[in-house]
Amino acid sequence: MLKNLIYITIFLTSILSFSQNIKSITEFKKVGDSLIKSRLSEFDKSGNLVREVNYGKFDSRLKTFRNKIRTFEIKNGQRVSEYFCENFVSNDTCVVRAFSTFEFDNKTGIEKQTKYESDSLIRFIRETKKSKRIKSSKTYSWEFIPVEKPDFEKALVLLDTIFYDKQKRKTKRVSYNNRKEKPVIELYKYSDKNYTYQTIGTYRDTTLTFQYNELQKLADKKSLNYIFQNSENYKYDIEYY
């Protein structure tokens, strides 16, 4: 099993460069000499994420595994709803923890997401607009005290702008918070073998260098909504349509 998954990982770079549509990606985490299933992501033929399962550990008190599941409804290429539930495997039940509704305005190109708690109180409202090289969003948040009706004057307001290069890679992110004076800036610089991530405006600014993941590079190029972990600790199994 391990040998086959390593083989798949090595050759995934060349496979992704062709036109096959990915149906699902199963992620396995290396624990000692074993591989433990950690995540399952399922996509439609357009590359939209429609379901994701994060496999949890065994709950000795409840005598069951607890998995976290997100499901998306897609219509005409746009998200309509999202549900997040916790799956208690032995009881074959999935308890809803939160859900979202989405509205898309064709004239303005703005997607509006309203996220609710399980009791239908509003956690946040976010408006997002994408262009070829820029993605911007404005969020009104009541994270710690969800509300029945939006009170925009008491909301935490977050403004995010992400800039991309011609290869669809992030180059800069600027995040504003109406309760702080200065924005937080994230900078990305790429070379052939690695990329540098830098933060400015945080309590402890950081500069880190990462080896660039070729699988992630190709997934980004194909606009696949997926984050690959490092190949040393994770392996992947791919299913195609």
Describe what you observe in this structure.
- The chain is built from 2 helices and 16 strands.
- With 241 residues, the protein is mainly beta.
- The chain has a 16-stranded antiparallel β-sheet that branches.
- The chain is globular, with a radius of gyration of 20 Å.
- 7% of the residues are buried.
List the helices and strands and how they pair.
Elements: H1 2-16, E1 22-31, E2 34-43, E3 49-54, E4 58-59, E5 64-75, E6 78-88, E7 93-105, E8 110-117, E9 122-130, E10 134-141, E11 156-164, E12 170-177, E13 184-190, E14 194-200, E15 207-211, H2 214-221, E16 234-240
Antiparallel strand pairs: 1-2, 1-16, 2-3, 3-5, 4-5, 5-6, 6-7, 7-8, 8-9, 9-10, 10-11, 11-12, 12-13, 13-14, 14-15
Average residue pLDDT: 88
Strand portion, in percent?
over 45%
Helix content: under 10%
Straight-line distance between termini: 22 Å
Q: What gyration radius follows from the Cα positions, in whole Å?
A: 20 Å
**Anisotropy-based shape:** globular
Structural class: mainly beta
Number of strands: 16
**So what's the oligomer here?**
single chain
Q: Please write the string of helix (H) and strand (E) elements.
A: HEEEEEEEEEEEEEEEHE
> Total helix count?
2
The main β sheet shows up as: 16 strands, antiparallel
| Parts with pLDDT < 50 across at least 5 consecutive residues | none
